[in-house]
Amino acid sequence: MRIGLALAVPLFIASLTSSAAPAAEIGDKNFTADDLFQMTRIWKVELTFTPEQWTNLAPRKVSAPSGSVLTGAPGLRNGLQGAAGMEYEWVHADLKIDGLEFKDIAVRYKGNGTYQKGQLSGKISFKLALNKYVKGQKLAKMDKLNLANEISDSTWMNENISYKLFRDAGIPAPRTAYARVFITITGQKPQFYRGLYSLVEEVDPLFLSRWFPTKDGALFKPVMPVPFTFMGEDWEKYKQSYDPKVDLTDEQKKRMIDFTRLIATADDATFAKQIGDYIDIDETARFLAVSVYAMDYDSILLNGQNYYVYQDTKTNRYSFTAWDQDETFAKVGFGYGTLPDLSIVQPHRPNNRFLVRLFALEAFRTPYLKAIAEFSNTIFNPESLAAEVDLLAAAIRPAVKEESESALAMFDAAASGDSFFSPLTSSFILPLKSFAQLRKENVTEQLTKIALPGKN
Q1: For a 10 Å CB count at each end of the chain, is N or C smaller?
Q2: What pTM did the predictor assign?
Q3: In what side-by-side order are the strands of the sheet with 307-311?
Q4: Average pLDDT, stretch 115-136?
Q5: DSSP letters of 265-283?
Q6: Is 187 left (phi over 0), alpha (psi -120 to 50) or beta?
Q7: Where are the domains of the chain?
Q8: 3-class DSSP state of 1
Q9: pLDDT tens for residues 196-221?
């Protein structure tokens, strides 16, 4: 494993507070990504557009609806917007981060469900590419950044905390900070406050180099309700759903096809013997343990999206990376409900053959259930999560207040642990503090009914 797990509440909280101030000022030659991505840091991000550039940000219709819920037309983006035939355009803009200027960067909208929700208020997520138009323009060696509007999360904390839970479990996940985002439309609209965003690390070769011995392996962002479906021997049938982020070799294409064939056609004995050649079982157990404990339905568990798969060239095995974590902690049940009672032994759709076969495998269930039991007392400990909520809430509350009084009211309720009504979901939301306590009680009850290895 690549990063150690925080094993106690004091260590967990220390990991948050020890980096409360940047070690180097932005713009200094020693400024690093570690300085940028501090969970309690709020950066001032200023984007400047011409009226034409601002208008051209709007998605445009490029194809007919694909007929799929989440998969776009061949060669186009996936997700709800892609399936509807919409594409986001890159436009030129200028950027300042705490006064540090970047001229002529590329900006586009990002997100699918968050884009649709964001249209109501005009607060939409952005992806920034610093060197698309000016080659070599980077910040702390990074050339891409994400600004997540957190429109689905009235706490502004779920995604940031979720990513940290994965990292503390030793699973690759982006780092985050916060950003107060200001927009200027030259000659048309003076600078105005768009709101508080999460600043999210890009999953790219630089990210991969932090977690793996190599960074030049195959990287996929699958989107399919039934993950790793076998579709025959022609890679073209896989290309759109598996959405490779790099040019693949023939061997990498074949490797993925072989993986899906194993899942679809192998008998139980063959599957048990060979699955460890394709995935690190212990690591996958920890990845799924975090997803299940956090009840992240908008993931590989239910919707079949919001994760990356990386094929390490050294081991030739696949690793999982979490993405888009704003719906975690059962905030939206997608028909499964929002009570913190998701089964830890069957937390997936019954037709998800990959997870059905994996959860039936003793070599997986043993480390998975051990991880669930461990996390209940460590990274998901209600006391540590409540302390993290308090720390983040104190840091970001002024920026939330600046956004709107209605946002502040929901935020204050969430930060205190009180359930609140969300107009976006037309339902009451159970905040993280309450979720953590109830989920631990539920998981503990489930574990008492399971014969854990080594348990008397």
Answers
A1: C
A2: 0.93
A3: 218-220, 307-311, 318-322
A4: 90
A5: H--HHHHHHHHHHHB-HHH
A6: left
A7: 18-204
A8: coil
A9: 999 999 999 999 999 998 888 999 99
